[in-house]
Amino acid sequence: MKCFVGIDVSSQTLDVCIMNAEGDTLETLQVRNHLQGASHLRDRILKAADACSALSIHIGLESTSVYSWHPAMFLHEDPALKARKTTVFTLNPKLISKFREAYADMDKTDRLDAWIIADRLRFGRLNTTVVLQEQYVALQRLTRMRFHLVHNLTREKQYFLQNLFYKCNAFQAEVESSVFGHALMELLSEAYSLDDIASMEVAELADYLRDKGRNRFPDVDHVARCIQKAARASYRLSKTVEDSIDLVLATSIQAIRSIQSQLKELDKAICRILDGLPQATCLRSIPGIDKVYAAGLLAEIGDIERFENQAALAKYAGLTWRRQQSGGFEAEDTKRIRSGNRFLRYYLVEAANSVKNRDPEFGDYYRKKYKEVPKHAHKRALVLTARKLVRLVDVLLRSDQLYTPRRKVNSGKG
User: Fold this and answer.
1) Residue 289 and residue 129: Cα distance in Å, rounded?
2) Predicted model pTM
3) Domain check: are 146 and 42 in the same one?
4) Is 87 strand, coil or helix?
5) Residue pLDDT, tens place only, 325-353
6) Nearest alpha-carbon partner for 292 in 368, 232, 339, 346
7) What is the Cα–Cα distance from 296 to 146, expressed in whole angstroms?
8) Which one of 75, 186, 268, 277 has the lowest number of neighbouring Cβ atoms within 10 Å?
9) Pairwise CA distance, residues 63 & 60, whole Å
10) What are the backbone dihedrals phi and psi of residue 286, each rounded to the nearest 5 degrees, phi first?
């Protein structure tokens, strides 16, 4: 006998429906979404489970941003609930929305939403529990913040390049070196006018770049000449517009450097946690997977035993294609599912892009898939390579093995 608890979560309240295995509602209640409210909910769940002689308890919550995390962790870690074989699930809202369609005439309220969640739990076939161990939770907060900063950095650089085109429209066409190198960023932050740069002696500009670039330019005189050529070829701005653009560029440079500094601090914190996770060694044995990719994958996967097999892990990442079959017909061109953990999918695809350049097996597989279609060849081949990487990641984590190229590892479950 099982007891099923559906919880509809908001920032302020938890609406709860407790249901038995036959689908009968045992109790409905609402508590505050804080520690005292969750403690009261625990007591009511235990009382209801005792009343129906439940041998185990399944608790489900919709994944609602940060609001469901605290109650899910509390209910998962509570000793009294653990003693009653309690399993906590965080459910994709799309799963509940699709299940609700079977009750088309039902009103939509928070209390009825809790009933729907409890009823979905009763139907089962939920292979992935929600809760990560604390080291994975800590790592996930860091890797997701890193994900956020990397995308902010990309946007800030794009915005910087737009404004650089106002300042010196010929710069990117004439100068081969990255504009985001330290020396060129320093040059642009000095607010030199184009005429100032164009009238400099090449040797003077080269000495400036050599000093700011710490002698890292292979041919600093060539770079100086290219910069001067770009300055002479660019349109001139009025003094008013140029002053505004200089201020915008300087502000953008400060923002870029600030984000880069924050990324360095995050990377140090990520490495400290990663050093305490032995699974990281397994993933880093794959050519092309560095600490950043290993951390991103482990933070989202957590304990691999949360997943029944590699197919469940792929579905969790959203790297699964729907099968379309009817009678003797089966479609060859099918679409990838749109659900799944976008962070895990991001790290798998990025890791696959790196691995294909360093491991011959993955490189051959990518090239084979690339040649199969005329359109979107790279994107399709890369996603399929990421799906292949899922199988390898699953086997290594389950068996606690290191990757040996061109040598099969022992298969784990699934």
Assistant:
1) 26
2) 0.76
3) no
4) strand
5) 445 544 455 666 667 888 999 999 999 99
6) 346
7) 9
8) 268
9) 9
10) -80, 125
